[in-house]
């Protein structure tokens, strides 16, 4: 059996994001991608309604895995080295789509924007009460972040998918970290790590004018 093909565990996602940052605040691409692989595993437990989202995320993870395993892998050790390498070698379509539709920079930017959604969603979950709706929390987080980068049809489909999210108790169970108090404490550990990875990536992309890559 594939050793990666076991049950989703929030703890593993947390471990991946905690390994992302080097002492000098470089973001290791390998662990960033591993974090997303774990999140997609979670998404896949939620049913076919989420398949279109999972398919897009998996496609982006595979593109980045291709760089991690490819001939230029030495340049894809960190997000910082990837940005430097792709910019120095004109491997990024900066103003309109052209010869490099699958550059590492534009692919990672899509996941980076989704990481902001995740950050907002997990923070809502962490402070939520028994009667709060995961669908509402998810939609609120999406509307405040990722939705502004999506066309109407994607926003509509995402909105419909959110409606069938499991309730808070079932959702916590799929997270597979134990009782509610433990989920809340793991989320409390995970969020600063995820926020720090997001903050560093955002600053790097802003510094190079890459936040609107087509
Ligand atoms: C830790 C446990 C609790 C939370 C677990 C959450 C698990 C979420 C796993 C994956 C999230 C999906 C990430 C989606 C990446 C989307 C990237 C994107 O924006 N792609 C669009 C643009 O790409 P290009 O066309 O420019 O290449 C693309 O158009 C998107 C298509 C699919 C729709 C994306 C909707 C995203 C909604 C937010 C995720 C909702 C997941 C709900 C599950 C709780």
Automatic annotation (TrEMBL):
Gene3D superfamilies cross-referenced by the UniProt entry: Glycolipid transfer protein
Sequence similarity: Belongs to the GLTP family.
Species name: Tetraodon nigroviridis
InterPro entries: GLTP_sf (IPR036497), Glycolipid_transfer_prot_dom (IPR014830)
Catalytic reactions on record: N-(hexadecanoyl)-sphing-4-enine-1-phosphate(in) = N-(hexadecanoyl)-sphing-4-enine-1-phosphate(out); N-(9Z-octadecenoyl)-sphing-4-enine-1-phosphate(in) = N-(9Z-octadecenoyl)-sphing-4-enine-1-phosphate(out)
Ranges in coiled-coil conformation: none
Main location: membrane
Pfam families xref list: GLTP
Top-level taxonomy: Eukaryota, Metazoa, Chordata, Craniata, Vertebrata
A molecular function (GO) term: ceramide 1-phosphate transfer activity
Any one Gene Ontology cellular component term annotated for this protein: endosome membrane
Keywords associated with the record: Cell membrane, Cytoplasm, Endosome, Golgi apparatus, Lipid transport, Lipid-binding, Membrane, Nucleus, Transport
Glycolipid transfer protein domain location: 28-176
GO biological process: negative regulation of interleukin-1 beta production
Name of the protein described by the UniProt record: Ceramide-1-phosphate transfer protein
Classification via SUPFAM superfamilies: Glycolipid transfer protein, GLTP
Entry's localization field: Cell membrane; Cytoplasm, Cytosol; Endosome membrane; Golgi apparatus, trans-Golgi network membrane
Membrane topology, record value: Peripheral membrane protein
């Amino acid at each position: 059996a594939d050793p990666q093909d076991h049950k989703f565990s929030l703890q593993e996602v947390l471990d991946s994001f905690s390994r992302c940052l080097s002492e000098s605040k470089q973001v290791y691409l390998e662990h960033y991608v591993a974090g997303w692989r774990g999140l997609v595993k979670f998404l896949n437990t939620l049913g076919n309604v989420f398949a279109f989202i999972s398919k897009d995320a998996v496609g982006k993870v595979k593109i980045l895995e291709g760089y991690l395993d490819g001939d230029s892998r030495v340049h894809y050790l960190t997000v910082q080295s990837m940005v430097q390498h792709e910019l120095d070698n004109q491997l990024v379509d900066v103003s309109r789509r052209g010869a490099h539709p699958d550059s590492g920079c534009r692919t990672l930017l899509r996941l980076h924007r989704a990481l902001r959604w995740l950050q907002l969603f997990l923070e809502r979950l962490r402070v939520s009460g028994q009667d709060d709706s995961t669908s509402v929390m998810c939609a609120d987080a999406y509307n405040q972040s990722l939705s502004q980068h999506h066309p109407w049809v994607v926003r509509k489909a995402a909105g419909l998918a959110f409606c069938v999210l499991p309730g808070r108790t079932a959702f916590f169970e799929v997270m597979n970290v134990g009782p509610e108090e433990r989920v809340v404490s793991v989320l409390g550990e995970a969020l600063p790590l995820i926020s720090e990875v997001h903050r560093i990536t955002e600053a790097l992309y802003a510094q190079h004018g890459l936040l609107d890559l087509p």
